[in-house]
Amino acid sequence: MRNEISIRQLSLHLFLLIATLFTTFLAGGFAFGVTLIIILGAHEMGHYFMTRKRGVRATLPYFIPAPPIFIAGTFGAFIKMKSPIPNRRVLLEIGAAGPIAGFVVCIPALIYGLTLSEVKELPLAQMDFSFGSSIILSLLTNMVLGVTPENADILLHPIAFAGWLGLFITALNLLPIGQLDGGHIVYALFENFHKVISIIAIIVLIPLGYYYWYGWFVWVIIIGLFGFRHPKLLDEDIPLTNKERIIGWVSFAIFVLTFIPAPITF
């Protein structure tokens, strides 16, 4: 099955890409914008190439520009499925391909960006807010800079900040809820419990929003608007192989490594 792209469609994708490059440049500079676009592009092209491999029709990535007053200058990117998913195996592989590809690109970007970043001891730093740390960020900052975000303030270079955002976006996409990438993986792995897992995840986000970051409330509202339903597969009975199960659990390991309970603190 072929993905046919018209000149008009290709022009739209290209326009949105250029517009998003522009807004991310304004938000954080050239190095930040290029790095973030590469990370987002890797994530979405991971999905796209897997749809091509598995014979599912899908669009090229749509990048979404945002006013530069927002931290990143973009609301992310997405691809749109144009044909049904045949079975759980394909669903899991498509759902996991994006976060895994994005994660693989984020790590070297973050490591390189950290080598260009500046460390300040906590008593000397005067900042109105700070960005939270994930397990993988703490490990990498300790490896590269010899400190962790818990015992020092790290003034991230724009490339490192793009890497931080990429990891955060990866974690958001891997939330095991609804039609997020994590929701697709849960649906494929746990056919009888995906709704329960989604509801539990939503319940967990509520106290996280109260105690750590109000942004989790926004995510609860957005997810609530889209609902917990998952599109039916053409064949619900084909079981996963060990290969797909390993891919699914690797994805959840990435979620644990990248999740930040308090992304921004004031």
Helices and strands in order, then pairings?
Blueprint: H1 7-28, H2 30-53, E1 62-65, E2 74-78, H3 88-115, E3 118-121, E4 130-131, H4 135-145, E5 152-155, H5 158-173, H6 181-189, H7 194-211, H8 215-226, H9 242-258, E6 264-265
Antiparallel strand pairs: 1-2, 3-5, 4-6
Helix pairs in contact: 1-2, 2-3, 2-5, 3-4, 3-5, 3-6, 3-9, 5-9, 6-7, 6-9, 7-8
Short précis:
This protein has about 270 residues and is mostly helical. The chain has helices spanning about 5-30, 30-55, 90-115, 135-145, 160-175, 180-190, 195-210, 215-225, 240-260; strands spanning about 60-65, 75-80, 120, 130, 150-155, 265. The chain contains nine helices and six strands.
One letter per element, helices H and strands E, the order comes to HHEEHEEHEHHHHHE
Report how far the terminal alpha carbons are from each other: 51 Å
Envelope shape: globular
Q: In percent, how much strand structure appears in the residues?
A: 5-15%
* DSSP summary: helix tally: 9
What's the number of structural domains? 1
Mean pLDDT: 90
Give a quick account of the main beta sheet: strands, pairing sense, barrel closure. Answer: 2 strands, antiparallel
* Strand order, largest beta sheet: 1-2
Percent helix, as a range, is 55-70%
Work out the number of β strands: 6
Poorly predicted runs of 5 or more residues: none
Radius of gyration: 19 Å
Q: Please identify the structural class as seen in this structure.
A: mainly alpha
